[in-house]
Amino acid sequence: MVTQTIDIQSTQQEIVDELAFFDDWADKYRYIIDLGRKLPAFSETWKTEENKVKGCQSQVWLKVEDLPDNRLKLYAISDAAIVSGLIAIILRIYNERTPQEILSTPPDFIKATGLDGHLSPTRSTGLAAMLRTIQAHAERRLAA
Predict the structure, then answer these.
(1) Cα separation, 84 vs 59, whole angstroms
(2) Contacts with 3 (C-beta within 8 Å, 6 or more apart), sequence order
(3) Which is it for strands 60-66 and 72-78: parallel, antiparallel or unpaired?
(4) Which of 115, 121, 74 is nearest to 96 (CA)?
(5) Listed residue (65, 125, 129) closest to 97, CA to CA
(6) Is 87 a known active-site residue?
(7) pLDDT tens digits for 68-105?
């Protein structure tokens, strides 16, 4: 198990800085898609209705495991390249964090990177659905 060594806000800032490196949105999208190609393996057995993220136009599955140290291990995948890249960004920020960290950290990277103005409405809705799903898992873990 690899625990986060950098705080969650710094992770968001790293992503903002990485995307700022690219001059145009075509390059930024290529970078995001490349991030999605590097997602960890996602078991076919996890592709269930229970793990399917509701509200995404593309197929997105999210599996959450409770780790013994009160952190949440997140696995996710999509059938769409750009969505897989967005998943990679989300996992980089929220994976292996505590429920408190997840719930107290708004996804500031969306506005700071300009994604809020460059994603299609359906992708923006899907991104919000993924974030809501992760937050719901964190809330359930906190309540348990």
Answers:
(1) 10
(2) 69, 71, 96
(3) antiparallel
(4) 74
(5) 65
(6) no
(7) 899 999 999 999 999 999 999 999 999 999 999 999 99
**Residue recorded with tokens 């013994």:** 68
The tokens describing 79, both together, are 């059938």
CB-based contact 105:134 (threshold 8 Å): no
Out of 3.40.50.300, 3.40.50.1390, 1.10.760.10, 3.90.1010.10, select the CATH number for domain 8-143. 3.90.1010.10
In the set 32, 35, 56, 72, the catalytic residue is 56
Output phi, psi for 23, to 5 deg: -80, -35
Structure-block tokens of residue 108: 């500031």
Q: Comparing C-alpha atoms, which of 36, 5, 27 is closest to residue 127?
A: 36
Cα(131)–Cα(133) distance, rounded to whole angstroms? 5
Give 17's Cβ-side CA count (13 Å radius): 6
The candidate with the shortest Cα–Cα distance to 134, out of 53, 59, 80, is 53
- Domain extent listing, the chain: 8-143
Report the predicted TM-score, pTM, of the whole model to 2 decimal places: 0.92
